[in-house]
Amino acid sequence: PTLVVMRWIASETRSLDEMKANPDLKYMHPLLQSKWTTANRYNRNSSPELIAHFDRMVEFHRRLVKALKAEGVPMVAGTDAMTSGVVGGFSLHEELELLVGAGMTNEEALASATRLPAIWLGVDGDRGTVEVGKRADLVLLDANPLANISNIRKIAGVFVNGRWLDRAALDALMADLVKRNEATKADFDFGKMGK
């Protein structure tokens, strides 16, 4: 359903303030940050009609999730990451929260990002669930997402190819990314590129 992309586009038709204030924006490459904040086509082409259109799209996608769930149609989580405002990784958290807000249970939302995509892609023989013999790629959380879907943001660490990265290691990787992005910004005047 990609609820998150519709939500962000609707926001951008009104103003770029929410995107500019998004703390996750710093993880995007500076070229994308500049494009999103200075050459944003949704904002540039905004009109009362466009705002109303995307407001209707947000509501349509929310109702679509409810209708598909009512009919037992399996859904996989998607975000259209890299669309303006949709920061990869972080947007999946937001998508799962929006799916729950649209009527999915916490368990259904989690399955939409794990088991069901593996089945749809035909790779469920070695990924998508935690089982003996499957790939050791998983996220360990500090709180139960079945109790509150927002607990997916409370990441203790991850296993990647069987290698453990704790919270400190993840924070160091993210800090390094921000540092590299800042260095790239210093090399160019991105403010003039989108004009």
Structure notes:
54% of the residues lie in helices and 7% in strands. The protein has ten helices and three strands. It has helices spanning 3-14, 17-21, 30-38, 41-44, 48-70, 90-101, 106-113, 115-121, 167-187, 190-193; strands spanning 138-141, 155-160, 163-166. The chain has a three-stranded antiparallel beta sheet with strand order 1-2-3. A hairpin with a 2-residue loop joins strand 2 and strand 3 (163-166). The model has no long low-confidence stretch (mean pLDDT 94).
Q: Estimate the helix proportion, in percent.
A: 40-55%
Give the total of domains. 1
Distance between the termini: 33 Å
Topology pattern, helix = H, strand = E:
HHHHHHHHEEEHH
* Count of individual helical segments: 10
What are the main properties of this structure?
mainly alpha, 10 helices
Q: How would you summarize the topology of this molecule?
A:
Layout lengths: L2 H12 L2 H5 L8 H9 L2 H4 L3 H23 L19 H12 L4 H8 L1 H7 L16 E4 L13 E6 L2 E4 H21 L2 H4 L2
Antiparallel strand pairs: 1-2, 2-3
Short description:
With about 200 residues, the chain is mostly helical.
